[in-house]
Amino acid sequence: MTADPILEARGLWKTYEAPSWMGRRGGARRPALIDASMTLRRGEVLGVVGESGSGKTTLGLAVLRLTASSGAIEFDGRAIDALRGDPLRRLRRELQIVFQDPYGSLSPRLSVGQIVGEGLRIHRIADDAGNEARIAEALREVDLDPAMRHRYPHELSGGQRQRVAIARALVLKPKLIVLDEPTSALDVSVQAQIVDLLRDVQRRHGIAYLFISHDLRVVRAMSHRIAVMRDGIVVEQGPAEQIFTRPQADYTKTLLAAALNLEAV
Q1: How far apart are CA 232 and CA 7, in angstroms?
Q2: Greatest distance between any 2 Cα atoms in the chain
Q3: What is the 3-state secondary structure (H, E, C) of 104-151?
Q4: What does the pLDDT look like over 132-161, one tens digit per residue?
Q5: Which of 114, 176, 184, 226 would be 47's cystine partner, CB 3.0–4.6 Å?
Q6: Greater model confidence, 128 or 110
Q7: CA-based angle 122:123:124, to the nearest 5?
Q8: Residue pair 183/195 in contact by the 8 Å Cβ criterion
Q9: What are 59-91's pLDDT values in tens digits?
């Protein structure tokens, strides 16, 4: 793809402090991102892959400014790494996230309509009537009956809950969505439905996706380009087909061989 970048991160660093219960190692600082850089273009899907603990989710949270990090982050042509207060809150509507666990990420005390409309209320986008119309539109976008807005998460299937989580992100009409393992908690048949839904939404609206997953088959189906992470480092990134057929880094070759039952070369 040749579109302009919507998101650029350069030289991101993030460390976590080990908990005190770890004894003598307590208080030690563990790097989660090490000089990590990536570019996501408008309307593109960038898959981020790697083993558990490789820094995939931390990268997603860092570029959304949901966890503190050092380094440069630009979104839609402006620096956002130093934003604070109201400017950062206004930015939130353009940058959304869908989490791995659709049940854990939805408040059991709120109805579907309240969950999907929460961002509308926070950002004061419309009046009550306007919010209801947007909520219904968002639910239809994810192939749910707007009448479901009166139900609660425990009354829904796993796939329906994840559709609600996607609708919650879509209702604000964002330019970018981070998808953090959005299919890994679902049955295989439901995974395929969610992947098809995400692809349809992306084609209709041109939303850029940062698609985080350990499932390389899903990543290959979704992504235009791929970034491979190991121990907080982006070891390789490039067009999806190139990564899968002509990987350059030894770690990428090993990862593909293990995940796809290929012979490592």
Answers
A1: 19
A2: 60
A3: CCCCCCCCHHHHHHHHHHHHCCCCHHHHHHHHHHHHHHCCCCHHHHHC
A4: 999 999 999 999 999 999 999 999 999 999
A5: 226
A6: 110
A7: 95
A8: yes
A9: 999 999 999 999 999 999 999 999 999 999 889
